[in-house]
Specification:
The complex is a heterodimer of chains A (156) and B (461). Chain A is of the alpha/beta class. Chain A contains five helices and eight strands. Helix content of chain A is 36%, strand content 21%. In chain A, strand 3 and strand 4 form a beta hairpin. Chain A is globular. With 461 residues, chain B is mainly beta. Chain B has a 16-stranded antiparallel β-barrel with strand order 1-2-3-6-7-8-9-10-11-12-13-14-15-16-17-18. Chain B has a two-stranded antiparallel sheet with strand order 4-5. In chain B, a hairpin with an 8-residue loop joins strand 15 and strand 16. Classes of the chains: A alpha/beta (156), B mainly beta (461).
Chain lengths: 156, 461
């Protein structure tokens, strides 16, 4: 009986290899192809996407977000910022009331993020792994590549 | 057996409802989480449900083919998916993004906040010159922010508060101000005009990643409350006495060098300030030509604790009421500590501040009997709140505060207790309701207790 169950589970894993994150696609942190930024700590990533100045690859990083309330945005905010959509909203409103910088610019699609990351010096964004293009490169987070099973920044 | 397994898997991948549990398990497996026997049992149950779903022979055959195709795809953990060429049909300029233009947002941003409240006061006894029971609506703030990047390293920022003041207030001589005037554009009907308060106006420049210089009129970087500044970002309605009484000046005009450094998740922030200090016309002129200096250090830890300390030393010099007469002047030093802790929905914060004042001979402020003595004001508050994710994200909160001024003829000490609710139905809209009970000790208000009921709506636009 047990081998049968194991076979089912394995089959499911194999079958849905490409669908593994159908409701939770891995989100790859990306910068322009050729950038010397190949890895970033989760702490720096959080600082970068919460309005602080962070350098990487010899440039000040300019973050770009996925569209508000999109699965990519919700997943990234939860995994990297540790905040729910409501908490993120309050965080940015409070910052603006204090006179601090606002949220990174949101782009309407992963294709826009790919294009911006490729074209703008210092731009950093995130997109689903199946949206990677040839002119951007993936950045490891805490030394973990998105192809690693331990990578846990996923869309919600 | 193998074919049966593939068919079951293919059906699941086709979106059968029971697949949800399996998908969840699968997600955990791929994420590297340990799989418990219970999880396996759930998966088995789910798979069994899948197997019981009705299916035609054609469906099963298609599913088997799909599964076979899928099985040929290498596992994602082993190989990165192939990338595709960049899309040329994405028009970044339509979004105002032009790679050949400035790599920063140079648009003028206009936004702000406002608040409106209802206040009902009740004193436990008759106090001369104070009405025992009052209730009123009031529009508190209408603040407009203007912000713009000038270069990638330089920013300009201003905040102005539109106010109905000075109407209804008292001027320096104690006379009530009435700004009623006839409106020539409206058949000379009466209109009350107001004014504006320049809360902030400065330019700042990033010298390095760790140092930024700010020049202009800015909020004094001390504590927590003064930085939070605006009603939408502040949990309670009413400021603690140590903030409202400005032990530290709320604003200063001068230079603020600040920056931060992060190491291993610990962030150290600093501020060094030089300004005109407090004075009768502090934003336009330093009445005594003596600069005030201050600073702040704050350490933020990775586990949600922030602790800070602030210092300010300067000379206050007022405006001479008559030319040639000496103006009120004193040397003041303020110092304080603050701590804030955020862990999930739990929020704790507190500040303790002291201010020492030393008057010049012949330039003391008058008091009810004689003149104000040198002395030290002291006070603190602690606030605890817990944010729920329901009932408009309600946060019940409680505050205790203690305020011990010197040279105050009205009272020697205040103990204040506040309980309230802070609702945030949306990030930009905040509704608050609170009750403050403040007891006075000593002086003119000895044994007086005020009960204040306040409801406030504040919003950002």
């Amino acid at each position: 009986m047990k081998p049968a169950i194991a076979s089912i589970v394995i089959a499911l894993c194999v079958v849905s290899g490409g669908l593994a994150h159908a409701d939770g696609k891995k989100l790859v942190v990306v910068v322009a192809k050729g950038s010397s930024l190949t890895t970033i700590s989760r702490g720096d990533l959080k600082r970068c996407f919460t309005g602080e100045s962070v350098s990487g690859g010899g440039k000040t990083l300019v973050p770009f977000n996925a569209a508000t309330s999109s699965p990519d945005r919700v997943g990234f905010d939860k995994a990297v910022l540790g905040m729910s959509p409501d908490e993120v909203g309050r965080f940015w409103v409070d910052r603006k009331v204090r006179g601090q910088s606002g949220a990174p610019r949101s782009l309407p699609s992963a294709a826009h993020i790919a294009k911006v990351a490729a074209k703008f010096p210092g731009a950093i964004g995130y997109l689903p792994e199946d949206q990677l293009t040839s002119d951007i490169q993936a950045v490891q987070v805490d030394g973990v590549a998105y192809t690693d099973a331990r990578y846990n920044i996923v869309a919600q | 057996m193998i074919r049966a397994t593939i068919i079951a898997g293919a059906l699941a991948a086709a979106g059968a409802p029971a697949f949800a549990q399996v998908a969840q398990l699968e997600h955990e497996v791929l994420a590297g989480d340990p799989v418990s026997p219970d999880d396996l049992a759930k998966a088995a149950d789910a798979a069994a449900e899948v197997a019981n779903l009705p299916a035609t022979p054609e469906d099963l055959a298609k599913a088997a083919d799909a599964a076979a195709d899928a099985a040929a795809v290498p596992a994602p953990a082993a190989t990165a998916p192939a990338t595709k060429p960049s899309s040329d049909d994405i028009d970044l300029s339509a979004l105002g993004l032009d790679p050949s233009a400035a790599a920063f947002d140079d648009k003028l941003n206009l936004y702000g906040f406002a608040d409106f409240k209802f206040v009902k006061d009740h004193w436990n006894k008759d106090v001369p010159t104070i009405q025992r029971d009052t209730k009123t609506f009031m529009l508190g703030n209408l603040n407009l922010y203007l912000a713009r990047h000038l270069t990638p390293q330089a920013r300009a920022f201003a905040e102005v508060r539109f106010t109905f003041l000075p109407n209804g207030g008292t001027d320096a001589s104690g006379k009530v101000v009435d700004t009623t005037a006839t409106d020539l554009t409206n058949f000379t009907r009466p209109a009350q005009w107001g004014g504006i308060v320049i809360e902030r106006a400065y330019v700042e420049y990033d010298i390095t990643e760790y140092a930024t210089i700010r020049a202009g009129h800015w909020l004094t970087p001390y504590g927590i409350w003064n930085i939070d500044h605006g009603s939408p970002a502040i949990i309670a309605v009413n400021r603690p006495y140590i903030i409202g009484e400005q032990f530290f000046p709320e604003h200063q005009t001068g230079l603020d060098l600040f920056g931060s450094h992060t190491e291993s998740g610990y962030k150290l922030d600093y501020h060094l300030t030089a300004s005109n200090g407090r004075g009768g016309a502090e934003a336009q002129t330093d009445q005594d030509s003596k600069l005030a200096f201050g600073g702040r250090l704050e350490l933020a830890t990775p586990w949600g604790l922030r602790v800070g300390g602030s210092y300010y030393r300067g000379r206050y010099t007022g405006l001479a009421t008559t030319a040639g007469q000496p103006a009120l002047t004193y040397l003041e030093a303020s110092y304080g500590g603050d701590a804030q802790f955020d862990r999930g929905p739990l929020h704790l914060q507190g500040e303790v501040i002291a201010r020492e004042r030393h008057y010049e001979a012949g330039a003391r402020a008058p008091a009810a009997a004689g003149f104000v003595a040198d002395g030290r004001d002291l006070g603190f508050y602690v606030l605890a709140g817990y944010r729920f994710d329901q009932l408009w994200n309600v946060m019940p909160f409680a505050i205790y505060e203690n305020y011990q001024p010197t040279g105050q003829t009205f009272f020697d000490q205040i103990d204040g207790y506040t309980v309230g609710l802070n609702f945030r139905p949306s990030p930009s809209l905040v509704l608050k309701a609170e009750v403050v009970v403040a007891g006075f000790k000593g002086g003119f208000l000895a044994d007086a207790v005020i009960w204040e009921y306040t409801a406030q709506a504040s919003w950002m636009f």
